[in-house]
Amino acid sequence: MLILITWLLDLWLGEPPVRLHPVIWMGNYLRWVRQRLPPTFLAGALAWLGGAIVVFGIACLISVIFHFQFSIFNLLATAILLKPLIAWRALREAATEVLTAPDLPAMRKMLAWHLVSRNTSALSEAEVCGATIESVAENLSDSLIAPLFWFGLGQMLGGGDLPLGLAFAALYRYTNTADAMWGYRTPELEYFGKWTARLDDVLNLIPSRLTALLICVCSGNARSWRIWWRDGLSTPSPNAGQPMSAAAGALGVRLTKRNLYDLGRELPDPQKADIPRAITLCARAAWLGVLCYALCSVLIQ
Fold first, then answer.
1. What are the tens digits of pLDDT across the range 222-234?
2. Separation CA 162–CA 167 (nearest Å)
């Protein structure tokens, strides 16, 4: 019930206000500490560790407090606190804004504003559509499947005495946010963000592959499995290519980033009409993932 309530809260209400959003607080800390420390590996690792201790500790404390309340209050409170750590509706709306932009320059602007960090000013329409599809597939893992995976694992490891699900999910989201802000190969971040980038890779090893599996199952065609198997490790990240390649095969489109990867290279370039298809496919995978997590929780209990 907790997982299902959290999922419905996301579908119905979306993101909480900025001032009340814990991921925004995490980002503010990460930005603040980066501006005040030298660009070294040790500084980056210690900066991550300091924030991780606070995030994990607060989440544990809240979980313990609510654990001793009556069951319905505990259920609703935990669902409300878990909700900001997942973000499917926000991802879907971001992709829709790219789709509904009136022209190519506006599509590039929406893509850069909502979904990617790369320079979008010279991207063709096919590249913009492809980048949008890639972001939806990859962030299905980062924004939903992975937080729920670590929540479930924390609940299982914590047992009845100390539920750790919220703390595990918060720690994952904190690390993923740190990687999104620090994980770049620039002179300032090459070493400073290396610890968080490698840790994020480890934390996403299983969820990214679960996401690809869900996409393949929901696609209903063998091509998605074939492209996933062949191209899943073609990206610089060991995880990003997993759901992206599965989506390329499922949708029958080529997903490429200049000089980095070419997923489904024999397939046609994506068009605007493929973006709503990608959203629908990933929405089905999201529903299937949530229901599977809920069922696994029941079976484990």
1. 999 999 999 999 9
2. 11
